[in-house]
Amino acid sequence: MKRRELLMTTFGTLGWLAANRIGAVETVSLRERQREIEPILEELEEFSGKFSNVPRTDGQLLNMLVKIARAKNVLEVGTSNGYSAIWLCLALEETDGYLTTIEINPERVKMAKENLKRVGLSHRATVIEGDGHKIVPTLDGKFDFVFLDADKGREQDYFGYLYPKKLAIGAIIAVHNAIRMRGAMKRYLEMITSHPEFDTVFVSTTLDDGFAISYWRRR
Ligand SMILES: C[S@@+](CC[C@H](N)C(=O)[O-])C[C@H]1O[C@@H](n2cnc3c(N)ncnc32)[C@H](O)[C@@H]1O
Predict the structure, then answer these.
(1) Confidence band for 21, pLDDT divided at 50, 70 and 90
(2) What pLDDT digit, counting tens, does each position of 69-86 carry?
(3) Domains contained in the chain, number
(4) Closest CA to 126 of 170, 89, 83, 173
(5) Which of 104, 129, 146 gets mutated to test ligand 1 (max ligand atoms within 8 A of its CB)?
């Protein structure tokens, strides 16, 4: 019998608490986890152009931001085949959080679910098939981390569905391609960079494109 099961069987509620404490300590092996899934990450990266995935360093940045923010309730719009969702979910293993991710293309939804299963992270995410503009307004907030990577130029609309009611105070909104596609995103970028309640920085890990990362300050 595993140590966790033994504790739970022998000590009831106290054992449950102890077992979960052990669970928290076990998350230290996350780096090991990343090593285990490395072949799958590399396989997905071979097709990153076809599925418009973020580059690995952007995935790593998303992962780091979720951990720094200790985010527990994450929303992604634009799942594609689940590559960025994997990086988000790896971070959520550490924060004990959950991802809701939306994708309009049924084939990609299938692939994302399959890929999350392959890396053992299905329990951290719900992949919703449909149009983000219909689904986001129906979701229960509050999200503490939002990653927008779907239909470029519609960020302002997603912001409108989320702010203020579906965002937790201190929420982060990360918008991908905010350098290369800044023309298409002009309306959103002008709004968010002049918004009195948000701090926004542009971050590039690749020197050709990157994120607009906005933090909703406490009022
Ligand atoms: C840039 S890709 C997302 C890549 C993904 N975030 C990653 O890095 O692995 C954009 C995705 O958004 C999806 N998409 C476009 N418009 C959408 C909408 N209105 N609602 C949901 N998904 C949408 C596309 O089908 C496409 O798969």
Answers:
(1) very low
(2) 999 999 999 999 999 999
(3) 1
(4) 89
(5) 104
